[in-house]
């Protein structure tokens, strides 16, 4: 069978319609750095996240010790334990102990064990700073982005590409309502960095 170039792309499946993209995302540490429900500030949230990517091992005295001086999403080896998980095993026995864990991880780079990463903390803190006039639902304490700009950029890119997609937001707290308000405000063109207006169905 003879196939010309125009037909070949369809025949070969290259023009096949893309399936619907469904993004499942958790609010905390994915879209939001701060947590209004637990009164966690951006600084505390960023510090806490950094303890999740700091890796060490527990010695014979049940003390956590660094494996190396690098932060990474993936553990450097199968026996590594993050500083967050180490503190969690020490401090958390029930849900009420979570407050103690938040306190213990919230100043990580201001303590001797994490001070070497203070410059990294400060670099990312500045990235999160809101450098525009205050806009309701889009800022935290008039100082920081409420939602991570990279998440909003992802949504706008999907819209620009005319991709069929849905976003499912998970949370154990009460921030979902605030997040929906932020998305609604953004898609109405109220965000200084995302001025295009588009229709987004919010549930």
Give a verbal description of the structure:
This protein has helices at 5-11, 42-52, 83-91, 98-105, 118-127, 149-160, 175-190; strands at residues 21-26, 54-58, 64-71, 81-82, 139-140, 144-145, 165-170. The protein has 203 residues and is of the alpha+beta class. It has 2 domains: 16-33 and 133-203, no CATH class; 38-127, no CATH class. The strands form 3 sheets. Strands 3-2-4 form a 3-stranded antiparallel β-sheet. It is elongated. It starts with a helix and ends in a 13-residue tail after the last helix. Mean pLDDT is 86; it is low at 1-14.
Low-confidence stretches: 1-14
Instruction: Estimate nothing, just give the exact number of structural domains.
Output: 2
Task: Summarize the main sheet.
Answer: 3 strands, antiparallel
Strand order of the largest sheet: 3-2-4
The proportion of strand residues reads 15-25%
Structural class of the helix and strand makeup?
alpha+beta
For the secondary structure, the number of strands is 7
């Amino acid at each position: 069978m003879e196939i010309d170039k125009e037909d070949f792309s369809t025949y070969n499946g290259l023009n096949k319609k893309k399936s619907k993209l469904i993004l499942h995302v958790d609010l905390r540490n994915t879209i939001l750095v701060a947590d209004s429900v637990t009164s966690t500030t951006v600084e505390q949230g960023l510090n806490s996240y950094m303890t999740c990517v700091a890796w060490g091992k527990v010695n014979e005295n049940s003390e956590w010790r660094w494996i190396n001086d690098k932060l990474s999403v993936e553990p450097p080896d199968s026996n590594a334990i993050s500083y967050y998980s180490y503190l969690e095993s020490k401090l958390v026995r029930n849900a009420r102990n979570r407050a103690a864990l938040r306190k213990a991880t919230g100043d990580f780079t201001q303590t001797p064990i994490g001070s070497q990463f203070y410059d990294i903390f400060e670099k990312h803190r500045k990235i999160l700073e809101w450098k525009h006039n205050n806009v309701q639902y889009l800022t935290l304490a008039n100082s920081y982005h409420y939602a991570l700009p990279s998440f909003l950029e992802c949504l706008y890119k999907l819209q620009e590409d005319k991709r069929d997609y849905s976003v499912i937001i998970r949370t154990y707290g009460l921030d979902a309502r605030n997040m929906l308000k932020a998305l609604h405000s953004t898609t109405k063109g109220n965000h200084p960095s995302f001025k295009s207006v588009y229709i987004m169905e919010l549930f």
